[in-house]
Design goal:
Oligomer: single chain
Radius of gyration: 21 Å
Helix content: 25-40%
Distance between the termini: 14 Å
Number of helices: 14
Strand content: 15-25%
Largest sheet: 4 strands, mixed
Structural class: alpha/beta
Length: about 450
Amino acid sequence: MIDLHINPSFSLNGNIQVPGDKSISHRSILIGALGDGISMVAGFLPGSDCLATLSCLRSLGVEIVESEENLIIRGVGMYGLKRPNSSLNCVRSGTTMRLLTGLLSAQLFESTLEGDEQLLRRPMRRVTEPLGLMGALIHTNDGHAPIDIIGTPLHGIEYAMPIASAQVKSALLLAGLYADDSTTIHQPGPTRDHTERMLNMMGASVLTDGSTIQIYPCEKLSPLSSDEGSIYRVPGDISSAAFPLVAALLVTGSRITIENVGINPTRTGLLDVLTQMGAKISLTSLNDDISSQIGEPVSMVTVENSELKGIEIKGDVVVRMIDEFPILAVAATQAHGTTIVHDAEELRVKETDRIAAIVLELKKLGANIEALPDGFIVEGPTPLRSSVVDSHNDHRLAMALSVAGLITSGEVIVNNVDWIGDSFPGYISLMQKLGAQYT
């Protein structure tokens, strides 16, 4: 296990690019594999979670060739997946497991999804139960993986999701491609819509009306890069951009620009919240050809050191920034007044209980933070002190604590930062390039 040593830093500056969007990378190869023909993908995130999806697809008979710049996916069509020779190892990736559960439910062969101990603890009934209503034959270990799937013909349903979840929605949409009638999904709030955008680009019929999504059965999907020779370019991940972005907000004298960041409105909750807190953030739209080519809005994001104020965060914005709450908590320690987070109970069933973990570790640094059942309360601004903290084997918690270490009174050591590679390979060197004192 690798430990990261951090010393207080003064002025982060520069232009950077963050790795490709994790959610879009997963979907680009999983949905691209269902296309009739070759899809070329640039900017794919080579993090361990996305590589788990890639490995599973290869086990299902999909040829994916890795070159220096692109992935070449030789799509097998909607009915070309093959029965795997052994269990499919999703490693630590909940996205891999949940989306594949939806897709494999409609394939006419048996399969099993397994993973590491951390993934085996995550709840899966939220996806297996609605799939069961579609006729799927799925067996779990008391609502957890391993997941045994007996592929069978499915029928369309109308389903009201009790919890807003893009992974559950995407699993149902993938299953709905194969159903005998349309499938309608009612969400309690907006969730990231990369699956809908991508499927529509490839020729599926997915209709969105507010928080209601309807998908119709489909016989054939075009390749992801449908024009001959064209390349699907995964934009930079706004969830990864959140860490250098907040670091620049908090470190005196900082100003950075992050290039080619995806700013899908279902993902920009953190930008909205930080702006409300007083952050100096500006967006510069890029060439429309880039956005139209991938069906996703892309921008340059410039941020500079700012004085923040505490606010209350709840409601629909929560799901639009669900992965960014560990770094939001760090920002809140330096905001003037009280920051209150509600409606974020989903954080308790991520890679770890992120509410409990971020509260525990920030308290070690001297933060005035208390847990709530569905969030936390932070009083600020609070000077942070030197300490040894732990990542809890969670990539986003590790990066959030590494940002906190930049504004402490002395050295901070973050234990077990290996997990950063799940979503942000190259994070440490990128932050060093900006001026962060990481060793």
